[in-house]
Fold this protein.
Amino acid sequence: MRSMRRGIKEMDIILKKYSDGHLNKMSADDLDHYERLLAENDQDLYQWVSGQVAAPKRFSVLIEEIAAYAGAR
């Protein structure tokens, strides 16, 4: 639910698409990491996923996966 109720419609669409295809396959650690990502500011997330700003190292792999899966880049 948190993936599709973000505040920025673009992030709702991007994260909903990613979560539908990946959450059921994630390990507990991966889910915890995704939860930490969801706690970040929506404007920052959008800039990271769209490639406008580099994501912090702790999220870089996950952001790349999300961007690739959603076709955001």
In short: The chain is about 60% helix and 0% strand. The two ends are 24 Å apart (CA to CA).
